[in-house]
Amino acid sequence: MTIDMYSNLKLQQPDWSSEIDRVKQRFDREFKQEAFDLPAEVEAMPIFREWIGHNLAAKITSPFWELAGFQKNHRCLDIGCGVSFLIYNWREWETYFYGQEVSTVARAALNSRGSQLNSKLFKGVQAGAAHQLQYENDTFDRAIATGFSCYYPPEYWKLVLQEVKRVLKPNGVFIFDAIDPDTELAENWAILETYLGAEVFLSPLTEFTELVKEVGGRVTSTKSGELFQMYRVSFEA
What we know:
Layout: H1 3-12, H2 17-31, H3 40-43, H4 46-52, H5 57-60, H6 65-68, E1 75-79, H7 84-87, H8 90-93, E2 96-101, H9 104-117, E3 122-127, E4 140-145, H10 154-167, E5 168-179, H11 186-196, H12 205-214, E6 217-224, E7 228-235
Parallel strand pairs: 1-2, 1-4, 2-3, 4-5
Antiparallel strand pairs: 5-7, 6-7
């Protein structure tokens, strides 16, 4: 490929920086516990009261470990990890934790405290978006990505799937979730998140299963929640 052809190819690729920056800013503010200035009609919504009262997370968190099948000494990449290593049972799973995160605040908190919590299992968090993983090919036994596919259109998620396939070992497993637009919470949660700074895409779940097939993956299990549906995916060699 000539330099001109490579340059033209780069120009044709979508620029996701604005979407990624919106998500980064939205979660940086939350992790810093900054106040959000929302319209009165949004603050009057029951879902806002649940969010501000810290009761919403329990409803919408995807229990990825139920599908991951972690084993001792597995290497797991948590994409969009937030402060995952500080709040989930990685010590119980005896699984090595690697992360990648766009939020500067979450990444700094995890890198400063993770090794203090368990220096053997915690392997650090890299800066970067989900479609540009900062890891080598065939590195991980498991990869997880929960809670953020909804902030991007499906064409972005195809890039994520391709990157995950690259970094997983041949027998590796990927766990991700997607918002189910038919759930009772979906529309109001999308409104809330949009006002918090990150637009939500209520894409049909069938689009995600089709994307998995397009990149040579196979959905081997699913689990439905109050807002998100989880998928366990393996990839063809």
